[in-house]
Amino acid sequence: MSVLWSSDEAVAATGGTSTAEWSARGVSIDTRTIRRGDLFVALKAARDGHDFVVQALEKGAAAALVSHRPEGVAEDAPLLIVDDVQAGLEALGRWGRARMKGKVVAVTGSVGKTSTKEMLRQVLSGQGRTHAAEASYNNHWGVPLTLARMPLDTEFAVCEIGMNHPGEIAPLSRLVRPDVAIVTTVAPAHLAAFESIEAIAHEKASIAEGLTPGGTAILNGDLPTSPILIAAAERAGATIRTFGESSACHNRVTDIRIGDHVTVAEGRAWRAPILYKVAVPGRHFAVNAMAVLAAARALGLDRARSVCDLGRWQPPAGRGLREVIALDPVETTQAFELIDDAYNANPTSMEAALEVLAAANVTHDLGRVARGRRIAYLGDMGELGDGEVACHRDLAALPHMQSLDAVHTVGPLMRHLHEALPPERRGRWTETAAEMEAGLRRDLDAGDVVLVKGSNYMGLSRLVGAIRKMGRAALAPDD
């Protein structure tokens, strides 16, 4: 791997002082995943990164970005010393963006940021050297880290920008300086920190403040708050392209067909018909895919290749990944399907996930129940403010609920959904995921389709792991 940062360039970027000459091939903030030759950034988060500098250097770090020499670090250790480590990381990100000669896309939105970012990675990688944020690195340290890690020969970069409080998106967008900015949607997420859905829209719209001159804003045109997004983009002097399902959108999805393992969509883009697919069920994936194709168009990419590459995209674990759990090593039909959407949840993404489950095909005449069922395990949705009780309770009235056979709920807020469900659909309620896990084997059977979804802090990934173990246990050889 080529050199990403030399000590001289890092000093120039940060205004810091280097104790030695060094060169780094990567940037890391975690000694658990650090690679030999990385620059270790000693951020202060849950723990002070300075406490891990010795370990990072022992693991082969090229140098460490610090605000002081930590205790136990040798006098001749390679250190890049700055006044503030967070500011130093931002300076590296700013320099990394400035030296990059390609094009940058930034994505924000209440729902669908990460999946849209990954669709963009898939599409752009087919037409140039592409660098994109890892996981959900979309906050005050994740965005500059993504930029600081960007290889010098990058042709396309994709940054995800998130927020929890007002005033977070605009500074990050100005750091990224995107050529194309996407807003997937505006939904009641993080309402605890905002006074209204309109306030959230203004925050999302501020991504336009960082657009490069002549940049393109690709905005969801189906929302009550779409005018707020459009007005902000107009003030920034952006070229505006809307996407969605309404007739007023520049890039319009006119038909969506949800299958068990694929979503096929038709629409009109650039005043021409278009047919495309994504290898996962979900209306929301198809709509956001139209935004991805609009971004590809804004970047001047080949349309046919973009559509073909998009068709190979699948979501990562925790974000709608679908898999078969085999219960018998010989009788391969003895299996059920798992939809792993346990990473996060708000009312909009919950409704989208329930639509996918409602459309899933179950298989009858298998297992002890002999009737395939659609089963959901739903955990609390966080940061919804004063309306959190209603947001949970009102899920019971969604039309997709009528197609489900059992809804198991986890958490104090989901207790309200549990009580609102009709008896024939009401499953178990538990305070914690650990308590819910104890009854999984009794709940599930061959032929079922199972959705697991909730806010990450609820720990429903524990249920996903336990469900997967049901298959691994069945396939393990006898001793």
The number of distinct structural domains comes to 3
Give the overall shape, derived from the CA principal axes: globular
CATH top level of the largest domain is Alpha Beta
DSSP helix count? 16
Structural class: alpha/beta
* CATH homology superfamily of the largest domain: Mur-like, catalytic domain
Number of strands: 22
Binned strand content: 15-25%
Average pLDDT metric: 93
What is the CATH architecture term of the largest domain? 3-Layer(aba) Sandwich
Question: What does the largest sheet look like?
Answer: 9 strands, mixed
Radius of gyration: 24 Å
- The CATH topology of the largest domain: UDP-N-acetylmuramoyl-L-alanine:D-glutamate ligase
The CA-CA distance between the termini, in Å, is: 45 Å
Helix content: 25-40%
Task: Give a description of the structure.
With about 475 residues, the chain is α/β, with parallel strands linked by helices. The chain folds into 3 domains: about 5-85, Udp-n-acetylmuramoylalanyl-d-glutamate--2,6- Diaminopimelate Ligase, Chain: A, domain 1 (3-Layer(aba) Sandwich), CATH 3.40.1390.10; about 100-310, Mur-like, catalytic domain (UDP-N-acetylmuramoyl-L-alanine:D-glutamate ligase), CATH 3.40.1190.10; about 320-475, Mur ligase, C-terminal domain (Protein-Tyrosine Phosphatase, Chain A, Alpha-Beta Complex). It has helices at about 5-15, 55-60, 85-100, 115-125, 140-150, 170-175, 195-205, 225-235, 285-300, 305-310, 345-360, 390-395, 415-420, 435, 440-445, 460-475, and strands spanning about 5, 15-20, 25, 25-30, 40, 65, 80, 105-110, 130, 155-160, 180-185, 215-220, 240-245, 250-260, 265-270, 270-280, 320-325, 335-340, 375-380, 405-410, 425-430, 450-455. A 9-stranded mixed sheet has the order 9-10-8-11-12-13-14-15-16, sandwiched between helices. Strands 17-18-22-19-20-21 form a 6-stranded mixed sheet, with helices on both faces. Strand 17 and strand 18 form a beta hairpin. Helix 3 (about 85-100) crosses helix 5, helix 7 runs parallel beside helix 8 and helix 9 (about 285-300) runs antiparallel to helix 10. The two termini are about 45 Å apart. About 50% of the residues are buried. Residues about 475-479 have low confidence and may be disordered.
